[in-house]
């Protein structure tokens, strides 16, 4: 198991990154170990998905979520960045230093600890409610208290059925709502950066499985939930998936329009 860094210092403090400690976790107290376990298990999920995309792109719903064989390389590249916790430049609070994702457990004191943020993570966690959120342009991934109500990982397979070329409705959470997948979802926002679908993007981020299948190839690569579902499908050995080129999934303008379940919202945050 990998060892993480526990740090509860202020936003502007210098944080050492030790060679064998890939995780930087802030303000989680007794829950730090739980976050670390989710990240450890998530690394294994990423490895499995990278291998599957490289070797078996016609299985585990890859075409349902990413549409094209040509999507293999960008999918693998994005997953590898998360797997290695690649540090990138241009992120606040110091744009000149390369930063890896830093994980922050949210509480009522978070706004005071991170005063430069354009939004209040504590209020966002309470009002949506969300499991986690990423504020674009910053190095922080915020973990809401609701996150800890989820199981860390699935204890059994929860493969969705496909009926009339659609995933069975409202079974998404059984497949993908686990702590390790939520952490990976937020890392997808981090590494996709400004191209990531979110509240303010056009189209807005999609969450339900069939909405994700209905995205065109370009926006499928921009939608973090597509990666989250694909990882879950790989890990739980699920292979039945809709054909995105057949009804009711026409690839065209319909694939880009928001609906009553995926409304856009203004603001610089991306949530799960």
**Beta fraction:** 5-15%
**Proportion in helices:** 25-40%
Q: How far from one another are the termini?
A: 26 Å
Low-confidence stretches: 1-20, 252-267
Number of strands: 8
Quaternary form = single chain
The gyration radius over C-alpha positions equals 18 Å
Largest sheet: 6 strands, mixed
The residue-averaged pLDDT reads 86
* Cross-sheet strand order for the largest sheet: 1-2-3-5-4-8
Based on CA inertia axes, which overall geometry fits? globular
Task: Explain this structure.
By secondary structure, the protein is of the alpha/beta class. Helices cover 35% and strands 10% of the residues. It has 10 helices and 8 strands. It has helices at 32-55, 62-66, 72-83, 110-113, 121-127, 172-176, 179-192, 209-213, 217-222, 224-235, and strands at 4-6, 23-26, 102-105, 132-135, 140-143, 162-163, 166-167, 269-271. Strands 1-2-3-5-4-8 form a 6-stranded mixed beta sheet, sandwiched between helices. It has a two-stranded antiparallel sheet with strand order 6-7. α3 packs across α7 (179-192) and α7 (179-192) packs across α10. It is globular, with a radius of gyration of 18 Å. The two termini are 26 Å apart. 44% of the residues are buried. The model is unreliable at 1-20 and 252-267 (pLDDT under 50).
List the topology elements:
Layout: E1 4-6, E2 23-26, H1 32-55, H2 62-66, H3 72-83, E3 102-105, H4 110-113, H5 121-127, E4 132-135, E5 140-143, E6 162-163, E7 166-167, H6 172-176, H7 179-192, H8 209-213, H9 217-222, H10 224-235, E8 269-271
Parallel strand pairs: 1-2, 2-3, 3-5
Antiparallel strand pairs: 4-5, 4-8, 6-7
């Amino acid at each position: 198991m990998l060892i993480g860094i526990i740090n509860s210092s202020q936003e502007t403090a210098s944080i050492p990154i030790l060679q064998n400690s890939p995780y930087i976790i802030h303000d989680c107290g007794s829950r730090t170990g739980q976050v670390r376990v989710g990240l450890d298990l998530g690394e294994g999920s990423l490895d499995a998905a990278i291998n599957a995309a490289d070797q078996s792109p016609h299985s585990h719903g890859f075409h349902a979520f990413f549409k094209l064989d040509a999507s293999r390389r960008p999918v693998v590249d994005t997953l590898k960045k998360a797997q290695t916790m690649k540090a990138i430049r241009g992120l606040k609070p110091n744009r000149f230093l390369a930063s890896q994702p830093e994980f922050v457990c949210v509480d009522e004191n978070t706004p005071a600890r991170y005063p430069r943020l354009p939004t209040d993570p504590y209020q966002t966690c309470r009002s949506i409610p969300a499991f986690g959120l990423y504020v674009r342009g910053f190095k922080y991934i915020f973990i809401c208290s609701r996150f800890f109500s989820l199981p860390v990982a699935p204890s059994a397979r929860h493969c969705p059925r496909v009926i009339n070329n659609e995933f069975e409705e409202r079974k998404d959470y059984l497949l993908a709502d686990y702590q390790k997948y939520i952490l990976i979802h937020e890392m997808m926002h981090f590494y996709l950066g400004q191209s990531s679908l979110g509240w303010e993007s056009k189209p807005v981020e999609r969450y339900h499985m069939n909405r994700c299948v209905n995205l065109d190839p370009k926006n499928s690569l921009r939608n973090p939930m597509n990666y989250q579902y694909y990882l879950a499908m790989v890990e739980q050995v699920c292979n039945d998936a809709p054909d995105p080129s057949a009804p009711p999934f026409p690839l065209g303008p319909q694939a880009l329009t928001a609906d009553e379940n995926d409304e856009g919202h203004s603001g610089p945050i991306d949530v799960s």
